[in-house]
Amino acid sequence: MRPLIIAANWKMNTTPADAGELAATIASRTEEPGVIRVICPPYVCLAAVRDALAGKNISVGAQNVHHELAGAYTGEISAAQLAGLATWVILGHSERRRDQLESDELIGKKLARAISSGLRPILCVGELLAERESGRAVEVVATQLRGALAGKEMEALLNAGFVIAYEPVWAIGTGRTASAADAAAMADAIRATLSADLGWGDSAEVVPVLYGGSVTSANIADFLAEPAIDGGLVGGASLKPDEMAGMVASAAVTARARAAAEGKTA
Ligand code: PGA
Q: Is the pTM of this model over 0.90?
């Protein structure tokens, strides 16, 4: 059974002075069994969030990592520098693809670094609106996956707990979401790409696929009702404790239902 995951991407929000309190509030409002919770604050807030979450069974992630471990890379942060601060990392977010011009090849190098450094990666993929409207969404996402995963060992990725987030670019921060059916169809296409194109076979089934793009407590149940979707990567709503409480509660209901369907306890 795949885990249920709610990952908070705080983007360029919060400061070292307020991030710890927000994280602690979210932690206390989201204590539900069966759901993996991850908070990804800005780099400068990692220490405060780590301290606030100590002993609370909620993980801390970075929003990016450099592919080299050290060197002359002004303004960058390496996996070695994240040791002790973060155990997860978001890679290939569409805002970085857009603003920092990150390519699939570069994202692949970051992915290799994440897994060799013990960081659990969330690889983001997703199409632009024009690409969806012209019927190329699946092809675009498959190309992103093949580009980032080229040359990677399936075993190493699986051991690292590799997670994929499907985030249609036109749904991020817009209040507009993909339909749950379209998101589920893409999750199926993602696993089909891993299984067939990349030769993962049945192992593709163990990879969690999250949906991201204007997820809220009001719409997350629609996505979680799709068996192919295993949680959310949440931006705007993840800064609001009420919203996080609602989303994690919804994921916990799903975790229980899926466990019951398999005759297990969540
Ligand atoms: P959003 O962002 O929830 O604000 O749309 C999601 C993301 O970019 O990960």
A: yes
